[in-house]
Amino acid sequence: MWGWVFAFFAFMLLLYVYFLKRELRKLKREVKELPNRSSFGGRLSIDFRDEVLLDLIEALNQMVDAFEKKNQQAKQMEESVKLTIAGLSHDLRTPLTSINGYVQLLQETTDETKRLHYISIIKQSVERLMEMTDHFYDLARIETNQKEIVFSSITLSNLVEEVVLSFYEQLEEKQIELHFSAQQHNYQIIADEFMLVRVIQNVVQNIIRYAKSKAVISYEKQGGDIMFSIKNDIKPDSKVAVEKVFMRFYTEVASRTNAEASGLGLYLSKNLVEKMDGKMDAALHGEWFIINIRLPMNRSQL
């Protein structure tokens, strides 16, 4: 009697081992084929309903999902960097060509007035090159997740005024009147100060390039956020396309040889704002171009 019982259990054990080894061999084949199948949604599976094996398959498939996600992100990042490099390389030619041309003219003339004019143009081209390389550096750090975000409590109006007024001479030169909100606001937001300064700088540079004569800065509390708005009047011949202003390399001047802007400033700013858990959008109301930036408010003020 016991002999038959022992034989039965031995047979069942052998049968279990046989099916287990069969599933492991199948699993081994599927793992080898996974690199070719995974991108098409292929995942590991088994026919043998063993709890330990099922847990193993689930864990392996989760690893495949995580790998797929990181691989896709890496491909998107690589493509994004390629596009940025291609666009930036194209745009770098304009200031470099300008510098080269005016250096030659500078060498050929003895007229002091002309020399000063040529030096001024060369200086502007060098500043444009510096701005473009700064934008590209920031963008590369963001898109490769190398920029560490350091959140802190910031008095928004104080920082905005400090950054905007640092452009006072350029605003004066362009005859742009600057108007701050009449009400005193001491709203505290949670953001990365370095990144926020970069955003404000980019927005002000956009105003200097495209505003007709006025810029207005205001603040508004919206739920748990503070909305910071900067609006400027636009020139009569303006061709700004609101739906494109945050696109990479978009400039109001359609020509890619536009010597004033790289087309990366607002694209970069939107990325920075979103990295700080905020939102950035633009609108066109009549003669006013408006940029709205929403950032989380310090919870102690809620």
From TrEMBL:
<keyword id="KW-0812">Transmembrane</keyword>
<keyword id="KW-0418">Kinase</keyword>
<dbReference type="InterPro" id="IPR005467">
    <property type="entry name" value="His_kinase_dom"/>
</dbReference>
<dbReference type="InterPro" id="IPR036890">
    <property type="entry name" value="HATPase_C_sf"/>
</dbReference>
<keyword id="KW-0597">Phosphoprotein</keyword>
<keyword id="KW-0808">Transferase</keyword>
<dbReference type="GO" id="GO:0005524">
    <property type="term" value="F:ATP binding"/>
</dbReference>
<keyword id="KW-0547">Nucleotide-binding</keyword>
<dbReference type="GO" id="GO:0000155">
    <property type="term" value="F:phosphorelay sensor kinase activity"/>
</dbReference>
<protein>
    <recommendedName>
        <fullName>histidine kinase</fullName>
        <ecNumber>2.7.13.3</ecNumber>
    </recommendedName>
</protein>
<feature type="domain" description="Histidine kinase">
    <location>
        <begin position="87"/>
        <end position="299"/>
    </location>
</feature>
<dbReference type="Pfam" id="PF02518">
    <property type="entry name" value="HATPase_c"/>
</dbReference>
<keyword id="KW-0472">Membrane</keyword>
<dbReference type="InterPro" id="IPR003661">
    <property type="entry name" value="HisK_dim/P_dom"/>
</dbReference>
<dbReference type="InterPro" id="IPR036097">
    <property type="entry name" value="HisK_dim/P_sf"/>
</dbReference>
<keyword id="KW-0067">ATP-binding</keyword>
<keyword id="KW-0902">Two-component regulatory system</keyword>
<dbReference type="Pfam" id="PF00512">
    <property type="entry name" value="HisKA"/>
</dbReference>
<dbReference type="InterPro" id="IPR050398">
    <property type="entry name" value="HssS/ArlS-like"/>
</dbReference>
<dbReference type="InterPro" id="IPR003594">
    <property type="entry name" value="HATPase_dom"/>
</dbReference>
<dbReference type="GO" id="GO:0005886">
    <property type="term" value="C:plasma membrane"/>
</dbReference>
<keyword id="KW-1133">Transmembrane helix</keyword>
